[in-house]
Backbone:
């Protein structure tokens, strides 16, 4: 038997990652469906169809994410999440611009306060990937504050309300902010005595793992706040060894890692896909937190699954897996005091 201590796990940072690395990946991201289909060697007809989609939410796929797709497979679960489909243009009853009631929960521009004790900042209007099923696809980002100065009114509002103990940085993706801006926002939050926890909702460590810079790691290490990072991964193929290594580095800062995913038809609506995702998450130190029923945003009906599908999946997972590997299956309903637990 080989000793476990013979091979220490390789958790060294990727040689001093700086903002230049991820900025480079962002600039290099694919913004053209024909380039995407050519790189994957799949039919240009799919690209023609993607190009016909009438949306302000353009295709955006960073290359580290592309590298985890299978060439020649037009049903690749990662590809399906990012390739626009002609049926995005089909209006469907019950699919609207703001199904989750974000606008009604807006206290100040960029500050959402829906749930007891937690307030959410729309810290960045942009993302590093455009997920076609995105629940904030239609969010009026032009009204949210830009730059750390512009956040002053929201910071004052939070300071004046001592019922808030946790701030969630969301977006868009809050890690689209450069570390200097992020650092200023975190420092203003740290200065508010009743703020105890900082939560970051982000997909960046998945789609551009180089985003885990030394400076970000140091920020998480140094803050007095309890830190929680909720990543967003829908499929086991997203979680390759580079993602795992970067998440190890985050975890070493004392940050609790959780995952949220969305139940998506054709992507992860099978028992095998869900079990594999949960096992892989635990393997890399991330607890499966939420499995979301799709929010019914305009143009996403082709991803929708029946609730019974999710209920059956969870029931079966509960039979087969340890309890901590089974995410909470939830739906967000406008006006409710918490997310609604379906199973
Ligand atoms: C989901 C959500 C939260 C966080 O909810 P938890 O159940 O604590 O994960 C907070 N604010 C808003 C606006 C949300 O949509
Ligand atoms: S990363 Fe999140 S906010 Fe950004 S497009 Fe994807 S689902 Fe939407």
Residues:
């Amino acid at each position: 038997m080989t000793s476990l201590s013979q091979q220490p796990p390789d958790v060294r940072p990727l040689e001093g990652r700086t903002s230049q690395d991820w900025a480079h990946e962002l600039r290099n991201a694919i913004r053209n469906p024909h380039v995407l289909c050519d790189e994957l060697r799949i039919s240009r007809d799919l690209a023609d169809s993607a190009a016909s989609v009438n949306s302000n939410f353009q295709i955006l796929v960073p290359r580290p994410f592309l590298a985890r797709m299978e060439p020649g497979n037009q049903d690749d679960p990662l590809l399906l999440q990012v390739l626009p489909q002609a049926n995005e243009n089909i209006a469907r009853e019950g699919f609207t611009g703001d199904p989750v009631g974000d606008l009604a929960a807006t206290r100040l521009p960029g500050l959402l306060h829906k749930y007891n004790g937690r307030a959410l900042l729309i810290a960045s209007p942009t993302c590093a990937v455009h997920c076609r099923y995105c629940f904030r696809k239609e969010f009026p980002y032009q009204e949210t504050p830009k730059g750390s100065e512009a956040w002053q009114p929201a910071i004052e509002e939070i300071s004046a309300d001592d019922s808030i103990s946790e701030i969630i940085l969301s977006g868009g993706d809050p890690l689209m902010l450069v570390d200097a801006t992020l650092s200023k926002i975190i420092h203003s939050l740290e200065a508010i005595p009743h703020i105890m926890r900082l939560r970051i909702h982000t997909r960046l460590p998945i789609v551009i793992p180089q985003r885990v810079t030394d400076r970000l790691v140091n920020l998480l290490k140094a803050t007095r706040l309890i830190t929680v990072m909720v990543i967003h991964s829908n499929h086991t193929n997203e979680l390759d060894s580079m993602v795992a290594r970067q998440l190890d580095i985050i975890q070493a800062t004392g940050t609790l890692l959780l995952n949220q995913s969305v139940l998506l038809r054709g992507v992860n609506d099978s028992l095998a896909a869900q079990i594999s995702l949960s096992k892989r998450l635990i393997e890399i130190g991330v607890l499966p937190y939420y499995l979301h029923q799709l929010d019914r945003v305009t143009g996403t009906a082709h991803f929708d699954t029946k609730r019974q599908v999710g209920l059956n999946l969870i029931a079966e997972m509960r039979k087969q897996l340890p309890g901590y590997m089974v995410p909470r299956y939830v739906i967000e309903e406008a006006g409710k005091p918490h997310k609604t637990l379906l199973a």
User: Anything to note?
Assistant: Residues 307-320 form the longest helix (14 residues).
